[in-house]
Write a structure and sequence with these properties.
The structure holds two protein chains of two kinds. In chain A, helix 5 packs across helix 7 and helix 6 packs across helix 7. Chain A is an all-alpha fold. Chain A has two domains: 86 residues, RNA polymerase sigma factor, region 2, helix turn helix motif (Rna Polymerase Sigma Factor, Chain: A, Orthogonal Bundle), CATH 1.10.1740.10; 79 residues, Arc Repressor Mutant, subunit A (Orthogonal Bundle), CATH 1.10.10.10. Chain A starts with a helix and ends in a 7-residue tail after the last helix. The longest helix of chain A has 26 residues. In chain A, 65% of the residues lie in helices and 1% in strands. By secondary structure, chain B is mainly α. Helices cover 86% and strands 1% of the residues of chain B. In chain B, helix 2 packs antiparallel against helix 3, helix 4 runs antiparallel to helix 6 and helix 5 runs antiparallel to helix 6. The chains are: A mainly alpha, B mainly alpha.
Chain lengths: 167, 211
């Protein structure tokens, strides 16, 4: 049973680490916070394994746990991290604004300025999730997802100031 | 750049960005965190309950001591005081058990999870705001009865007995008031902002489909 859980955890981590990284990056400002939130999400994922019955896709499940944890995560709570060395090494892009992915950097900065719910909607949309999946993760209707996404896109375009043409 | 192009750039970056994770170390850390979190919760509960039981035992000890020395009234009031402390312990245990059953998990939808989190925060606020009634008043009644009986026992001392009673009650009231203020500060500093944050989250999740 524990071996199964460990296998599932490692499998999720291997397949969805990018997703976790993007959620963590969208909801935090500093590397320490990123590390803390990442660990918190990993803990919640581990705890959620016994409840996973395979009714939804693993990616939807992981997304849901990650977003829920990120949105109610409180920076002021006692830090779990006790390691002096980081457990996760994030890609170096954020420390190197001269890289060609400057657009992505600007996008993350803009996403962080959105309200938390809008952040989640934009993240899921950018990752290519269908409205039905977004609706399942957030627990709101698909039409509500559409309204929120449209509003968030407009706000994002405003923050990005000219980067997006079609708004 | 259109939003679709931005989406493609995002997805390309997502597939190019690789994290460096040692999943074995991370798993070990997750398990350690899990155990540490569970032990923090358990030790906090055990500490609260042990403190209550310790006070109950002290008052039973006092009761035995006074009974041995023939001070029946004080012995009885000491024993009576324990009922009030037992009430606090019982309330604490039952409340913990109920809340533990209600606790939600982040694998539910965000709406459900945020609603449940808000219910929990509201319950914590309710507990602390009303701590006078369930946490402070019962032991205070026990103390008043106990101090009153000791004052009555030494009533032959006249004013001195009254002054002693006054000083003891004042000290007790000051300590209880300090505990109350400390907890109300915790509500203002931690719980109210958390509640506002969750309410705002739920408000943002609210139905916009008609707008």
């Amino acid at each position: 049973m524990i071996a199964d859980s460990e296998r599932t955890f490692k499998d999720w981590l291997g397949k969805h680490q990018g997703l976790l990284y993007r959620v963590v990056r969208a909801y935090t400002h500093t590397p320490n916070d990123q590390d803390d939130l990442f660990q918190e999400i990993c803990l919640q994922l581990w705890l959620s394994i016994p409840r996973f019955e395979g009714k939804s896709k693993a990616s939807t499940w992981v997304y849901r746990v990650a977003l829920n944890t990120a949105m109610v995560w409180n920076r002021s709570e006692k830090r779990r991290r006790k390691h002096t060395n980081r457990l996760i090494t994030f890609p170096a892009a954020r420390n190197n604004p001269a890289r060609p992915d400057e657009i992505i950097e600007r996008l993350y900065d803009a996403i962080r300025k959105l309200p938390k719910v809008d952040t989640s909607v934009v993240l899921m949309h950018l990752d290519g999730l269908a409205y039905s999946e977004m609706s399942e993760i957030l627990g709101i209707s698909e039409s509500n997802v559409g309204v929120k996404l449209n509003r968030a896109k407009k706000q994002l375009a405003l923050i990005l100031d000219g980067l997006i043409d079609d708004f | 750049m259109t939003f679709d192009e931005l989406q493609k750039t995002w997805q390309k970056d997502a597939s190019d960005s690789k994290l460096t994770i040692d999943s074995n170390i991370l798993l070990r850390e997750v398990k350690r965190n899990r155990e540490s979190f569970a032990s923090i919760i358990l030790s906090r509960d055990v500490r609260e309950i042990s403190a209550g039981i310790f006070v109950v035992l002290c008052f039973w000890g006092f009761a035995g001591f006074f009974l041995y020395h023939g001070l029946k009234l004080v012995a009885w009031t000491s024993a009576l005081s324990t009922i009030f402390y037992l009430w606090v312990i019982l309330f604490f245990i039952i409340d913990r058990a109920i809340q533990r059953k209600k606790r939600s998990a982040p694998c539910e939808s965000l709406m459900e999870y945020a609603e449940d989190s808000l219910v929990q925060v509201n319950h914590q606020i309710w507990l602390l705001k009303n701590m006078f009634w369930w946490y402070l008043l019962p032991p205070a009644i026990g103390l008043v009865i106990f101090f009153g009986s000791t004052a009555w026992q030494t009533r032959t001392l006249g004013k001195i007995a009254l002054i002693r009673l006054f000083l003891r009650l004042t000290l007790g009231a000051l300590i209880f008031w300090g505990v109350y203020c400390l907890n109300q500060w915790a509500v203002r500093k931690d719980l109210n902002p958390r509640k506002d944050e969750l309410e705002s989250l739920l408000k943002n999740l609210g139905n916009d489909s008609n707008t």
